[in-house]
Amino acid sequence: MKERLMNKLERWSDVRKAQAEPAWGAVISMALGVFGLVTAEFLPASLLTPMAAELGVTEGQAGQAVTATAVVAFLASLLISATLKHMDRRRVLLGFSILLLASNLMVAFAPGYLLLLFGRVLLGVALGGFWSMSVAIAMRLVPEALVPRALSIILSGVSAATILAAPAGSYLGDIAGWRNVFLLAAGVAAIALAVQFATLPRMKPSGATGLRTLAEVVARPAMGRGMVAVMLVFTGHFAFFTYIRPFLETVTGVGIDALSGILLGFGVANFAGTLLAGAMIERSLRLTLISMPLLMAFLGFALVAFGYLPAAAAAMVALWGLAFGAVPVAWSTWLARTVPDQAESAGGLLVAAIQLAISIGAAAGGAVFDLTGGTGVFGTAAFVLLMAAAIILIGISARPASAVA
User: Fold this and answer.
1) Rounded to the nearest 5°, which phi and psi values hold at 110?
2) C-alpha–C-alpha distance, residues 299 and 319, integer Å
3) 156-202 tens-digit pLDDT
4) For the whole model, what pTM was predicted?
5) Which of 187, 104, 93 shows the shortest CA–CA distance to 141?
6) Residues 66 and 123 sit within 8 Å (Cβ to Cβ)
């Protein structure tokens, strides 16, 4: 076991040494890919009604297009590295972008519901696979000291999609029809594919990435605690985010124009938080990991107490977006530093944990909302975030996690 671990570490060290100069063009191409993936993922939420009407299905059935993507993304995040363990990572990433392009075109031209659903399944494969490899690829594109900055650039694609996808999709869908919106998304995918083709270097697979490796990685003590903390942070956030609109409508009492403005403020602040995360992490990764859920917990309790004041609610929602913007970057950096020899397998576990946390946060938040309303959801989310901060404070460090013997 020790000899095998040393071989893995040597291969990883050779990969790190090979990338002496940062490949910022390739990093930007990955940010474009993330933007295209998350945009495609979010679009059905803003186009559900016209999609259902034209395809002759209920809105609930149309909504299963989102569910299919999430379920397949969960499975792909765990299995894709093992399935494609011998393939050049440049080809793998280009393949994901091709799947993204094909998915959008298939949805745009789908004559019926089943073909549309199949197109969303292709998106799930691309989404889960791309996310699971993003940390490992970032580690190979820039020197170690610049990994947090590279991750903040890559993840800024998420924030940009959060700002633009839903409002732009809804607006353009009313003007040009939902199919043309997906054609535009296909255009974004084509641009990302072209930039990736021009900038991504060849990257041979590094280290074993089989299913046995997944079990070995998750058995490392630091990984277990880290995955619990990740799930708590994302569960708390998505309990908050899923029910932010009904909270603002029922507790704060804002109309649709003010609601749109507050949500836009959240998205812009989230984008800023993602960009600031690199500098924060370079100063102290552990402080960033602890302080962000603590700030979000404080804001959750403050919204319960003062959320009836529109100006205060708008400011606190924006601050929450700023804080959460740093969270994915911080945990991705923690992964890169904690499991450097198996970043792809660990990345798959991280994505799977986040996908599961999203489902738990939305489902549990719905149950709490039905019982206690928006204030109950926000109070519960704040408590979950406090638990996450406590686990990080007590049991999470940024040192490499040794493999079990």
Assistant:
1) -60, 120
2) 8
3) 888 788 777 766 776 788 788 889 999 999 999 999 999 999 999 98
4) 0.71
5) 93
6) no
